[in-house]
Amino acid sequence: MTEVTPTPGIHHVTCIASDPQQNMDFWVETLGLRLVKRSINQDDPSTYHFFFADAEGNPGTSMTFFPWEDHAQGKVGSGQVSRTAFRVPEGSLDYWEGRFDEYGVDYDDRVKRFGETVLPFRDPDGLPVELVEVEIPDDDPTEPWTEFVPEDAAIRGFHSVTLWLADPEPTADLLQTMGLEEVGTEQAQGDTPGDERTRFAATGSVGKYVDVLPTIQGGRQGHGTVHHVAFQTPTDEDQQSMREAVRGAGLRPTSQIDRHWFRSVYFRESGGILFELATSGPGYDSDEPLDDLGGRLVLPGKFEGRREEIETGLTDVTIPRPAAAEADD
After folding, report:
1. Confidence of residue 193 (pLDDT cuts 50, 70, 90)
2. Where are the transmembrane segments (predicted)?
């Protein structure tokens, strides 16, 4: 039996948005993430695919979106990633609450979870997101993007995702097969009394936690919901061993698919959530200089030959820029 290399954690999370400009403005200007790739959905080239991440687009930092303008509003429920949480430096939540007040962001009171302070909020499509205060070590693998948000408050990659499941047990077993370790349980705040949140930890330092929570609340995919969550399998060999382990668990992973900036394998876990396994490379700077990430519409592979057709069908968007930078032009 092939030995499985444990996943270091989350690679990226992909969500469904409505208006592309609204999505761009919120994630770049309000939250201060960098647009590291402006491309298309490779399975639906009539739709953008935006990638927002840290300054270098490091694995474990990119929140990505399909702005499907004609989709209906979604509802978070069982069989979905219900919350996506990002790390922010200790002591920065006062800054974030002030910023949310300034920008009219819908947020809730802070809560404590596994000893950490969490600030829940929603993006303009109602997507549930959280900021979690953590100590950022000097050798942290993320690089803050500081065009809109100061370094001492900037988002530093993923903290965790929360999975809502009708029956969490098979998914808990799968996470352990993928190399995550159960590290604790606690009463779930704001949910059905008696429900327990179970936390699993991966081996890396960014995006290392997956929380599993039982619920029978119905949901539907659409604006404001997560499409899929991707886990890091840094090399092709790591990915292949994980794919074999997933098959051994009775699931049906796809063959490897080239996504241009990483190579991917997809499967639905037993609760219905779409999981992806993604390699670390080639990376977002494989087709654009690091300084110019997100500056142009990138059409990978065969799509470049259809540029005129594709660009004609996409809504024009403007990348937010700080006022100081605009004044220098």
Report:
1. very low
2. none
